[in-house]
């Protein structure tokens, strides 16, 4: 029914809006689901839908929402993997064999892969790395990793049914999971929020956010990245606030399928407690350059904090480590997801 659709008629200018499905740009949907652009609950007149989903202009990215509840892309990936047998494509093939995530994506799916004894890969950002793993047997005559699920924190999720992220598939995957969790219509609805919180209760919670600084000067941003890259050895084993940096490095990936090497894939600060701070420089979003700052804190038991409070100290440490105020003239992100 068109009554539940918004911005569903294709237009060259995306109906005057931004193509990406996130809390900032999918503002009509976010408001209808009882949230603001930071994911906080807001009062809404009338009933709030139980399920909301958004895709971008070409349908490859997705965002999942429950009633006044935002599912981070990293949590969405982990929940889909944990419930893959609810999806006929996987259950009919005997279940998943492998999963992968991009390096900046939170470690939530890592915990599921370990629990389910699945092959797991951490790759650079870019779907081509997932594609190699999917084609390991057919193209490269190597190990068969399919059925396979993969995802990125940038609202991209997919499987080996296609060699690209598929936002429509991700929405349908969630609908399959919701249907499997609600076999009896006479009983109270097991909601999106219920499913995610049950997942956290089993696996713990990866508090996570990404700050995008869009349209910054590329030369200045590159100098900032170069400085952090040059100081990785000095920062390793350094104590910052209540954290110790066990490893500071520039992520390097050797492809297990074709042996190719990808270098300079992001500056990482890996804390001794499993927390992470990551910086990447991108030139693909609009004019100028975009600095992406990723913050992650794993909590096995303390599940009810707000993301802002859970990540407050790490965020402050991250801004100090990169010194973006000096290099780029701002500490205020364009978008927080």
Number of helices: 12
The pLDDT mean sits at 94
Binned, the helix content reads 25-40%
Terminal Cα separation, in Å? 30 Å
Give your account of this protein's structure.
With 337 residues, the chain is an alpha+beta fold. It is 30% helix and 25% strand. The strands form 4 sheets. The chain has a 7-stranded antiparallel beta sheet. A hairpin with a 3-residue loop joins β6 and β7. α2 packs parallel to α4. The longest helix has 15 residues. It is globular, with a radius of gyration of 20 Å. It starts with 26 loop residues before the first helix and ends with a strand.
In short:
The protein has 337 residues and is α+β, with helices and mostly antiparallel strands.
List the keywords.
alpha+beta; 25% strand; 337 residues; 30% helix; 16 strands
Q: Which helices and strands, and how do they pair?
A:
Elements lengths: L26 H6 L18 E5 L6 E5 L2 E3 L1 H10 L5 H4 L6 E5 L5 H9 L2 E5 L3 H8 L13 E5 L3 E4 L7 H15 L10 H12 L1 E12 L1 H13 L1 H4 L3 E2 L2 E8 L2 E2 L6 E2 L4 E5 L4 E7 L6 E11 L7 H4 L1 H11 L1 H5 L6 E2 L1
Parallel strand pairs: 4-5, 4-6
Antiparallel strand pairs: 1-2, 2-3, 6-7, 8-15, 8-16, 9-10, 10-13, 11-12, 13-14, 14-15
Helix pairs in contact: 2-4
